[in-house]
Design goal:
- Helix 5 packs antiparallel against helix 6, helix 5 crosses helix 8 and helix 6 packs across helix 7.
- The protein has a single domain, classed as Glutaredoxin, CATH 3.40.30.
- The mean pLDDT is about 95.
- The protein is an alpha+beta fold and about 200 residues long.
- About 35% of the residues are buried.
- About 55% of the residues lie in helices and about 10% in strands.
- It has a 4-stranded mixed sheet with strand order 2-1-3-4, sandwiched between helices.
Length: about 200
Protein backbone atom coordinates (compact mmCIF):
# COMPACT_ATOMS: atom_id res chain seq x y z
CA UNK A 1 0.00 0.00 0.00
CA UNK A 2 1.38 3.41 -1.02
CA UNK A 3 2.09 5.80 1.81
CA UNK A 4 -0.21 8.80 1.76
CA UNK A 5 1.36 12.21 1.16
CA UNK A 6 0.56 15.84 0.53
CA UNK A 7 2.31 17.24 -2.52
CA UNK A 8 2.96 20.91 -1.80
CA UNK A 9 3.26 22.65 -5.16
CA UNK A 10 4.76 26.08 -4.63
CA UNK A 11 6.27 28.84 -6.71
CA UNK A 12 8.42 31.51 -5.09
CA UNK A 13 6.82 34.65 -6.42
CA UNK A 14 3.33 33.76 -5.24
CA UNK A 15 2.36 36.21 -2.50
CA UNK A 16 -0.07 33.98 -0.59
CA UNK A 17 2.61 31.29 -0.34
CA UNK A 18 4.20 33.48 2.36
CA UNK A 19 1.39 32.38 4.68
CA UNK A 20 2.07 28.70 4.02
CA UNK A 21 5.85 28.70 4.31
CA UNK A 22 5.79 30.80 7.49
CA UNK A 23 3.82 28.08 9.32
CA UNK A 24 4.43 24.80 7.50
CA UNK A 25 7.35 23.68 9.70
CA UNK A 26 5.24 24.04 12.84
CA UNK A 27 2.39 22.15 11.20
CA UNK A 28 4.72 19.29 10.25
CA UNK A 29 6.17 19.32 13.77
CA UNK A 30 2.80 19.31 15.54
CA UNK A 31 0.94 16.77 13.42
CA UNK A 32 2.33 13.73 11.69
CA UNK A 33 2.00 14.42 7.98
CA UNK A 34 4.11 13.45 4.99
CA UNK A 35 4.70 16.51 2.80
CA UNK A 36 6.60 16.46 -0.48
CA UNK A 37 7.95 19.77 -1.78
CA UNK A 38 7.27 20.47 -5.46
CA UNK A 39 8.67 23.74 -6.83
CA UNK A 40 7.41 24.92 -10.23
CA UNK A 41 7.08 28.11 -12.25
CA UNK A 42 3.54 29.40 -11.80
CA UNK A 43 4.24 32.40 -14.04
CA UNK A 44 4.64 30.12 -17.06
CA UNK A 45 1.23 28.54 -16.44
CA UNK A 46 -0.47 31.87 -15.77
CA UNK A 47 0.93 33.44 -18.93
CA UNK A 48 -0.33 30.48 -20.93
CA UNK A 49 -3.79 31.12 -19.43
CA UNK A 50 -3.49 34.87 -20.11
CA UNK A 51 -3.86 35.38 -16.37
CA UNK A 52 -2.17 38.23 -14.48
CA UNK A 53 -3.89 38.10 -11.10
CA UNK A 54 -2.49 41.25 -9.49
CA UNK A 55 -1.30 43.75 -12.13
CA UNK A 56 -0.84 47.44 -11.21
CA UNK A 57 -3.98 48.26 -13.20
CA UNK A 58 -6.04 46.35 -10.60
CA UNK A 59 -4.99 48.54 -7.67
CA UNK A 60 -8.13 47.89 -5.60
CA UNK A 61 -7.62 44.13 -5.89
CA UNK A 62 -3.88 44.41 -5.18
CA UNK A 63 -4.51 46.54 -2.08
CA UNK A 64 -7.04 43.97 -0.87
CA UNK A 65 -4.52 41.17 -1.37
CA UNK A 66 -1.91 42.87 0.81
CA UNK A 67 -4.43 43.57 3.57
CA UNK A 68 -5.82 40.03 3.33
CA UNK A 69 -2.33 38.58 3.82
CA UNK A 70 -1.84 40.79 6.88
CA UNK A 71 -5.15 39.67 8.38
CA UNK A 72 -4.40 36.01 7.81
CA UNK A 73 -0.89 36.42 9.23
CA UNK A 74 -2.47 37.81 12.40
CA UNK A 75 -4.89 34.86 12.58
CA UNK A 76 -2.01 32.39 12.11
CA UNK A 77 0.11 34.25 14.69
CA UNK A 78 3.02 34.61 12.30
CA UNK A 79 4.98 37.78 11.49
CA UNK A 80 2.64 40.42 10.05
CA UNK A 81 4.56 42.13 7.25
CA UNK A 82 4.17 45.82 6.49
CA UNK A 83 2.76 46.25 3.03
CA UNK A 84 3.33 46.41 0.17
CA UNK A 85 6.37 44.25 -0.54
CA UNK A 86 8.39 44.31 -3.79
CA UNK A 87 6.16 42.64 -6.40
CA UNK A 88 6.26 41.05 -8.92
CA UNK A 89 9.63 39.35 -8.64
CA UNK A 90 12.16 39.85 -11.42
CA UNK A 91 14.18 36.70 -10.68
CA UNK A 92 11.58 34.14 -9.67
CA UNK A 93 13.06 31.52 -12.02
CA UNK A 94 16.38 31.63 -10.16
CA UNK A 95 14.58 31.55 -6.80
CA UNK A 96 12.70 28.41 -7.85
CA UNK A 97 15.71 26.73 -9.43
CA UNK A 98 17.47 27.15 -6.09
CA UNK A 99 14.42 25.65 -4.37
CA UNK A 100 14.60 22.65 -6.69
CA UNK A 101 18.26 22.16 -5.80
CA UNK A 102 17.26 22.48 -2.15
CA UNK A 103 14.73 19.67 -2.52
CA UNK A 104 17.51 17.46 -3.87
CA UNK A 105 19.94 18.45 -1.09
CA UNK A 106 17.51 18.57 1.84
CA UNK A 107 17.49 22.27 2.80
CA UNK A 108 14.55 23.52 0.74
CA UNK A 109 12.08 24.01 3.60
CA UNK A 110 14.50 26.20 5.58
CA UNK A 111 15.35 28.13 2.41
CA UNK A 112 11.67 28.71 1.67
CA UNK A 113 10.95 30.05 5.12
CA UNK A 114 13.93 32.42 5.16
CA UNK A 115 13.79 33.67 1.58
CA UNK A 116 10.12 34.57 2.06
CA UNK A 117 10.87 36.21 5.42
CA UNK A 118 13.60 38.29 3.83
CA UNK A 119 11.25 39.19 0.99
CA UNK A 120 8.15 40.03 3.05
CA UNK A 121 9.70 41.37 6.25
CA UNK A 122 13.08 42.74 5.14
CA UNK A 123 11.73 43.85 1.72
CA UNK A 124 14.51 42.08 -0.21
CA UNK A 125 13.01 40.51 -3.35
CA UNK A 126 13.39 36.72 -3.49
CA UNK A 127 15.78 35.56 -6.18
CA UNK A 128 17.92 38.71 -6.02
CA UNK A 129 21.48 38.77 -4.68
CA UNK A 130 20.80 40.69 -1.48
CA UNK A 131 18.05 38.28 -0.43
CA UNK A 132 19.98 35.15 -1.38
CA UNK A 133 23.24 36.21 0.28
CA UNK A 134 21.42 36.96 3.55
CA UNK A 135 19.28 33.81 3.35
CA UNK A 136 22.22 31.46 2.89
CA UNK A 137 24.30 33.28 5.48
CA UNK A 138 21.47 32.59 7.96
CA UNK A 139 21.37 28.97 6.79
CA UNK A 140 25.17 28.70 7.12
CA UNK A 141 25.40 27.40 3.55
CA UNK A 142 27.78 28.40 0.75
CA UNK A 143 25.73 30.73 -1.45
CA UNK A 144 28.22 30.94 -4.32
CA UNK A 145 28.40 27.16 -4.60
CA UNK A 146 24.61 26.82 -4.41
CA UNK A 147 24.00 29.47 -7.05
CA UNK A 148 26.54 27.87 -9.36
CA UNK A 149 24.83 24.48 -8.97
CA UNK A 150 21.34 25.96 -9.36
CA UNK A 151 21.83 27.88 -12.59
CA UNK A 152 22.80 24.85 -14.64
CA UNK A 153 20.95 23.62 -17.72
CA UNK A 154 20.02 20.48 -15.80
CA UNK A 155 18.25 22.34 -12.99
CA UNK A 156 16.66 24.80 -15.43
CA UNK A 157 15.30 21.92 -17.51
CA UNK A 158 14.10 20.10 -14.40
CA UNK A 159 12.12 23.17 -13.35
CA UNK A 160 10.55 23.28 -16.81
CA UNK A 161 9.65 19.58 -16.46
CA UNK A 162 8.20 20.17 -13.00
CA UNK A 163 6.08 23.00 -14.41
CA UNK A 164 4.77 20.75 -17.18
CA UNK A 165 3.91 18.08 -14.60
CA UNK A 166 2.11 20.71 -12.51
CA UNK A 167 0.08 21.76 -15.54
CA UNK A 168 -0.75 18.13 -16.37
CA UNK A 169 -2.19 17.75 -12.86
CA UNK A 170 -4.52 20.69 -13.36
CA UNK A 171 -2.52 23.15 -11.28
CA UNK A 172 -3.19 26.77 -12.20
CA UNK A 173 -1.92 28.70 -9.17
CA UNK A 174 0.17 28.56 -6.03
CA UNK A 175 0.22 27.35 -3.40
CA UNK A 176 -1.53 24.11 -4.37
CA UNK A 177 -1.81 20.93 -2.33
CA UNK A 178 -2.55 17.56 -3.88
CA UNK A 179 -3.65 14.57 -1.83
CA UNK A 180 -4.02 11.47 -3.97
CA UNK A 181 -5.95 12.98 -6.93
CA UNK A 182 -7.64 15.79 -5.00
CA UNK A 183 -6.41 19.32 -5.67
CA UNK A 184 -6.64 22.08 -3.07
CA UNK A 185 -5.72 25.55 -4.31
CA UNK A 186 -4.65 28.36 -2.00
CA UNK A 187 -3.14 28.71 1.44
CA UNK A 188 -6.64 28.79 2.92
CA UNK A 189 -7.19 25.24 1.61
CA UNK A 190 -4.13 23.80 3.39
CA UNK A 191 -6.21 22.65 6.37
CA UNK A 192 -8.73 21.05 4.00
CA UNK A 193 -5.87 19.14 2.36
CA UNK A 194 -4.71 17.94 5.78
CA UNK A 195 -8.23 16.75 6.64
CA UNK A 196 -8.38 14.84 3.34
CA UNK A 197 -4.95 13.36 4.04
CA UNK A 198 -6.20 12.14 7.44
CA UNK A 199 -9.38 10.53 6.08
Amino acid sequence: MKKKKIDFWFSIGSTYTYLTVARIKNIIKNISINIKLKPFNVRTIMLEMDNRPFPPSKKIKVDHMWRDIQRRAEIYEIVIPSMPVPYPLKNMEIANQIALLGVNEGWCLDYLELTYYNWFVNKLPAGEEENLILTFKELNLNYEKIKKNAVTNEIENNLIKQTKIAKSKGIFGAPTFIVEKELFWGDDRFEDAIKWYNK
